[in-house]
Amino acid sequence: MNTFLVTGGAGFIGSHLVEALLKQGHTVRILDNLSHGRLDNLSFLDHYPSDQYTWINGDIRDASCCAHAVQGVEYVLHQAALGSVPKSIEFPLDYHDNNVTGTLNVLLAARDHGVKRVVQASSSAIYGDSLALPKIETMTPAPLSPYALSKLTCEYYASMMQSVYHFPVVSLRYFNVFGPRQDPNSQYAAVIPKFVTAWLHNSSPVIHSDGEQTRDFTYIDNVVQANIHACFSDERSAGQVYNIGNGVNTSVNQLATTIQTLLGKDQSPVYEPARPGDVRDSLAAIERAQAEIGYEPTVQLAEGLQKTVAWYTQKLQTSA
User: Fold this and answer.
1) Looking at residues 293-303, what average pLDDT do you find?
2) What Cα–Cα distance (Å) separates residue 114 from each residue in 47, 107, 118, 246, 320?
């Protein structure tokens, strides 16, 4: 068994990684400043011995905190970031500070303290609004927002860490991750939790643009699998980027219809103008991840939506 650091470990994706690693018997160090993560996401820790995990309330923008967090760690799963395209357009400096400077702090600390490998979260947003589908890792990036640009910059740092310092960092370009624990309450929240919770409260969800824009919705279990596989993949993956999606795209209108049917609701969506920075269509080519890190999506959209809707429904019932 190994020792892992999960940055952003109290967040949506980070908490699922922590849980999966603990289930596999690994020791986990959790770093989060709770600016967006929630301790409620880590309620499962009560089921594990206290010596199997360590909680650090800290910030990746603090280099000394990063240095402390990586000591004795073999693998780092770096998820800590600010993650909204619209919000990044409002607050570009915050996104650079958190996502770029924070990531560089993590990478340098890991390099300097004997970590074997870092796997970091990137985003399909780096592709921009190219009409070419599916998105292939070799395409020229065209970021449309400070968020997308920050993630692309971190990918370049990962490549540089390998070429200059011979330190292995793998970047995973996530495509519209969804699942239990995703926060629906922010105005910048992802579409699936917003749709589900709107209908659960008997309200009409909002669709930006005409709803015919498409996304490659990716269930959280697939992302967890990709991160863990990337830690133990061979040297081909060092400094590389991989798309992590399902390889199937779905329109937002189709998504809304499916969720509405699962919940048995009558309220129709409300349409509002498109948001700046949003891309029109997105679809992942996942062949490279399959070949080089052993990634294989095991939960498809329909099953993932059923699990997600069930989780939010239960959460609403228990909080009533």
Assistant:
1) 97
2) 30, 11, 11, 34, 48
Catalytic site residue 147? yes
Q: Which of 75, 95, 147, 219 is catalytic?
A: 147
Q: What share of the chain is helix, strand, coil (3-state, %, to 5)?
A: 45, 15, 35
3-state secondary structure of 276: coil
Residue-level length of the chain: 320
User: What is the residue-averaged pLDDT of the chain?
Assistant: 96
Beta bridge partners of 7: 31, 78
pLDDT, tens only, 146-201: 999 999 999 999 999 999 999 999 999 999 999 999 998 877 678 999 999 999 99
Q: What is the mean pLDDT of residues 28-45?
A: 97
Task: Name 29's bridge partners.
Answer: 5, 54
**DSSP string for 70-93:** HTT-SEEEE--S---HHHHHH-HH
Mean pLDDT along residues 294-319: 93
Say how far apart CA 247 and CA 234 lie, in whole Å: 23
Tokens representing residue 296 in the block = 């294989």
Task: Burial-class residue 217 by CB neighbours within 10 Å (0-12, 13-18, 19+).
Answer: buried
Structure tokens at 203: 């309200």
**Two tokens at 16?**
């699922």
Residue ranges with strand state E in 154-196? 169-174, 177-178
User: Which three-class secondary structure state does DSSP give residue 105?
Assistant: helix
Residue 64 host element (H or E): helix 63-70
Of the candidates 210, 313, 229, 168, the one whose C-alpha atom is nearest the C-alpha of residue 24 is 229
Distance from the first to the final alpha carbon of the chain: 41
Do 216 and 176 touch, CB atoms closer than 8 A? yes
